[in-house]
Specification:
mainly alpha; 68% helix; 0% strand; globular
């Protein structure tokens, strides 16, 4: 088993950048969508402004809810912070790295979903229960695609940790396993869109009752609780984006980079590769019908399975 890397000045860089810059990724997506629509768009740090505004407000709790409702946003944020500590960035190893940490990553994302669904059900609202049911339904199809994609990365890298997997990627690896890695990238992008309730799986800006999935589960949250949920969503988007960017732009292959420069390159990779791509996807297509979404998620799992079988 690999040694666990403890928090340090160097290994803590990916986690620090994720905590600080994850709202900026949301800004990149929104500005990309605004540019595609011919608008100026909101400020880059609008997500930060919204978080601060919500944090200054008070929280309102229904008499129906229990401590489960209040604990949901806190536990969810804690799970995503630990998950972010497992993901490397730009050739810099993760704050925590050990053999099999990719399984823990998937488990922490599942924990976030679990507490969000519990908080929605705790309100006693059939409307939020509908959103929770859809969330669980789609997650049952998304998680296999994620696990198979991670398995394909493990197979073609020979490593069992995320830091080891992305640390061994290079241009030569793309020449040897280019087709398989490309399939993994596509599968992970579908997982990213599904896990973060983005188009074409869900629309984060929708207010149509019959199409809402994630947003309907957090309708009763307000004030600091809603601020935590928004920040958690941005952080989750960042860490999955870091996985995709680490595959597409293997910064670790360039030995001339210092650790600081590698971290900056990783930030640019996440912002450009992930932020712009997600913004373009949401600009050129609408969300899919509910009965079509499972086909997309199963297709992503199929692509990942083909990547595993490719030698």
């Amino acid at each position: 088993m690999e040694n666990v890397n403890h928090l340090g000045l160097e290994s803590g860089l990916p986690l620090l950048l994720a905590l600080v810059l994850s709202p900026l990724l949301v800004g990149v997506i929104n500005r990309t969508k605004a540019l595609a629509a011919g608008r100026r768009g909101a400020p880059w740090l609008q997500a930060c402004f919204d978080t601060v505004k919500l944090w200054r407000k008070g929280a309102v709790y229904s008499s129906t809810t229990t401590w489960v409702f209040a604990a949901g946003p806190v536990v969810g944020l804690a799970a995503v912070v630990v998950a972010a500590a497992l993901v490397p960035l730009g050739g810099v190893g993760a704050a925590m790295s050990f053999s099999g940490d990719l399984v823990l990553l998937a488990g922490l994302l599942g924990l976030l979903r679990f507490v969000t669904v519990l908080a929605a059900l705790d309100t006693g609202s059939s409307f939020e229960g509908m959103g929770a049911s859809r969330e669980v339904w789609f997650s049952a199809l998304t998680e296999p695609a994620l696990f198979i994609a991670l398995g394909a990365m493990t197979r073609h890298s020979g490593q069992l940790s995320l830091t080891g997997i992305l640390g061994t990627l290079s241009g030569a690896a793309w020449l040897r396993h280019g087709t398989a890695l490309a399939l993994v990238v596509v599968a992970l992008m579908v997982v990213l869109l599904a896990e973060n309730a983005r188009v074409p799986v869900d629309d984060p800006n929708t207010h149509l009752e019959l199409t809402m999935i994630h947003e309907v589960m957090v309708l009763d949250h307000s004030g600091p609780d809603l601020a935590l949920i928004g920040y958690t969503a941005g952080l989750k988007l960042w860490l999955l984006g870091a996985l995709v960017a680490g595959l597409v732009v293997p910064v670790a292959a360039a030995g001339v980079f210092t650790r600081l420069a590698a971290g900056v390159a990783g930030v640019l990779a996440v912002g450009v590769v992930v932020g712009v791509v997600v913004g373009v996807v949401e600009s050129v297509m609408a969300r899919l019908r509910l009965h079509v979404v499972p086909r997309l998620l199963v297709g992503a799992g199929g692509l990942a399975a083909v990547a595993v079988m490719l030698g």
